[in-house]
Amino acid sequence: MFDTLSDRLNNVFDRLRGRGALGEQDVRDAMREVRVALLEADVALPVARDFITKVTERAVGQEVLKSVTPGQQVIKIVNDELVAMLGGDEAGAGEAVPINLDVKPPAVVMMVGLQGSGKTTSTAKIAKLLKEKQGKKPLMASLDVNRAAAQEQLAVLGEQAGVATLPIVAGQQPVDIAKRAMESAKLQNVDVLLLDTAGRLHVDEALMAEMKAVAGVSDPAEVLLVVDSLTGQDAVNVAKSFTEEVPLTGVVLTRMDGDARGGAALSMRAVTGKPIKFAGTGEKLDAIERFHPARVADRILGMGDVVSLVEKAAESIKAEEAEELAQRMMKGKFDLNDLRKQLQQMQNMGGLGMLAGMMPGMKKAKQAMAGADMDDKVLVHMDAIISSMTAKERANPALLNAKRKKRVAAGSGRSVQEVNKILKMHQEMGRAMKQIKKMGGMKGLASLFGMGGGGGAPGLPGGGGGGGMPGLPGGQLPPEMQDFLKKK
């Protein structure tokens, strides 16, 4: 989402880094460009103006102008203020603000917002997250009697997420549904009750009156405003309208994986005065994450997000499998089945684009991938090629002669050249594993990255002996994978 803004800011900072000394005018000129970049990213004018004022006041002070590395000092100040703008001051050190469930059960979470903003899907996502990550027992109830099949949609999502939903009673009105949901939650010893309220195409009196009535009978611990970040500046106006009418406690931004300019996310905290608590990053029910201001700021400034990357690895990679794969690699038994597992792990972690965006220094690599018209379909193509091989061929790639390669290519719908590239990639990775063994194994590799050989997630350098994701060490993809990914 923040790619354009990130590119503009990094261009400004590259020029600052190249200067041995900075004068006050140099800083002001740079801040003028940052201001233009924020406005082009659709950040609200008052928010952009306040941000630039704070940064400039600090940046023209003695800590920058007399610093040995003035460019780096300016970047640090921008980072600090960006974290504060995103809500880092309230979250504490830029961490995510937790959802408030410290009340007498059931804790009611009321989801509000305009129609089409993603309330229903976000309700199911949050319920699934609370159940799987916090061990809570959630119950969902749809209060949307206006939109066709809205209640049925939540019921279907509940089945997919493994979360109970309130049975539908035809003709019942929102306030009555809320009362029935409260009674049902108490009878079932539910920890969290999520109320999916109705939306409108625009903010009107009927919408506000209905939400106030529901809040009156349910006494919600959290009132979360769901906003579609793709609507840009209009999302800020919607947030302002809701803030004036409803006692919001937080914001949920949906479609954060889209190609919008990102101004809504940057402005939301300043406009509403409430923290952004969740960010939707895709269509799947597990595509939601807690909003960490410091991590988002790091991504915008091209510093990567290694913490989130490690968390994704820990969630996606089973420690036992990683350990087994590492042992096989160290013994030189790296076959195509192992390569296939590594590719699948990359897909589970969000694909090439997601990984490149989280790795420090991978910004240019990500741009090169986009310029070469690469996408995550290449991982699917590679998996299809390996799947078209027999079990014996995957275990012993040397069996693949010209005739077998033609059969594999025809079975996967790809070319013989692509089959050869995968085989060559496998050989290169096998050789790389032998070199790592000579260096002292994974601990030796981890020491090169200053990771001390431990504490990471399985499957990453320093991750307790994990096998490592293909291409992540060193901040770049292996040459053979780069070759495979080139536009044909």
Layout of helices and strands, plus pairs?
Blueprint: H1 3-17, H2 24-40, H3 45-59, H4 62-65, H5 70-85, H6 88-91, E1 107-112, H7 119-134, E2 138-142, H8 150-161, E3 164-165, H9 174-187, E4 192-196, H10 205-218, E5 222-228, H11 233-245, E6 250-254, H12 263-272, E7 276-280, E8 288-290, H13 293-300, H14 306-316, H15 319-330, H16 336-348, H17 351-358, H18 363-371, H19 377-387, H20 391-395, H21 402-412, H22 416-438, H23 441-448, H24 479-485
Parallel strand pairs: 1-4, 1-5, 2-3, 2-4, 5-6, 6-7
Antiparallel strand pairs: 7-8
Helix pairs in contact: 1-2, 1-5, 2-3, 3-5, 5-13, 7-8, 9-10, 11-12, 16-19, 17-18, 19-21, 21-22, 22-23, 22-24
The rounded distance between the terminal residues' Cα atoms is: 27 Å
Q: Could you name the ranges where pLDDT drops below 50 across 5 or more consecutive residues? A: 304-308, 444-477
Note the main sheet.
8 strands, mixed
Strand content: 5-15%
Number of helices: 24
Which oligomeric state applies?
single chain
List key phrases describing it.
24 helices; 8-stranded mixed sheet; 8% strand; 488 residues; alpha/beta; single chain
Fold and architecture overview:
With 488 residues, this protein is of the alpha/beta class. Helix content is 57%, strand content 8%. The protein has 24 helices and 8 strands. It has an 8-stranded mixed beta sheet, sandwiched between helices. Strand 6, helix 12 and strand 7 (276-280) form a beta-alpha-beta unit. The radius of gyration is 25 Å and the shape is flat. The model is unreliable at 304-308 and 444-477 (pLDDT under 50).
